[in-house]
Amino acid sequence: MEFEKPVVCVLDASTYVGFWILKGLLSRGYPVHAAIQKNGGTEIEKKIREMEKIEEKLSVFAVDILDYHSILLASKGCSSLFCCLDCPDGYDEKLVDLEVRGAINVVEACAQTESIQKIVFTSSLTAAIWRENICSVKDVDERSWSNQEFCRKKKLWQALAKTLSEQAAWALAMDRMLNMVSINAGLVLGPAVAQQNSTSTMCYLNGAAQMFENGVLAFVDVNFLADVHIRAFEDQSTCGRYFCFNQIVKTEEEAVKLAQSLSPLISMPPSYYECQGGEVYTQRLRTKKLNKLVEGTACF
């Protein structure tokens, strides 16, 4: 006998990552509340609206992350919530605060929704890798956090937003005794990423040269990332943070391939392809927890 699967909420389902999590959940038979912000009728939002017409298990809700009650309505009756916040127009100092306030509202709404049992919070590796003298750090893992003052000094607004919003979410989740896990993703690659996720991609790559030289420039396929989110939701033993990436860029050849995969967002002079050096940079990121999750032993 097949048990009926619980209803889950994806907020914001109209982000690039949120959309792929939404598709993954529907393909597994989950009823989904797709909570979307008004982002001016993006291509992904239009796709979700079209999907709603043919997907019996999909319900779409319009939300404003600064409107706590709209989040309550979208999450009502859901067993879990996937929180995938992003700023479609890029980041600056003011938008950092917007994302932090949004994260707090989402977690507080979950605390007030009796049916919610778990939050899967999408964060970024940029919430862990930025600080002075990172080259002196041997391992960067889930215990690491980006330094807020360093991010402000270097105007790494996306990294600051992801750091502060994740820390605020963790603080409130622990205070409200909510079950939460976070997925700290590398640079997200996937179908039409240069067209559908261009601003977020370029924001992530602010400081890319320093990331590369310090062995912390990593990328992840969006299909794999969505699968990891769903595994983290389904596995009752998951806990804490999970770094999520497929590969660390260690050589100039790999860096060129990455740039080519993001064309036309990133263009490089033809001469660059002919003068790649042979230096291999030491990787510092660790994914022991991710490996255990994929293998089915999440927190052991």
Structure description:
The protein is α/β, with parallel strands linked by helices. The longest helix has 19 residues, at 93-111. The protein has twelve helices and ten strands. Helices cover 42% and strands 16% of the residues.
Summarize the structure.
By secondary structure, this protein is an alpha/beta fold. The protein has 12 helices and 10 strands. Helix 1 links the parallel strand 1 and strand 2.
List keywords for this structure.
three-stranded mixed β-sheet, globular, 12 helices, 300 residues, alpha/beta, 42% helix, 16% strand, single chain, seven-stranded parallel β-sheet
Strand and helix order: EHEHEHEHEHHEEHHHEHEEHH
Global outline: globular
Distance between the first and last residues' Cα: 31 Å
Query: What class do helices, strands and sheet pairing give?
Result: alpha/beta
Tally of DSSP helical segments: 12
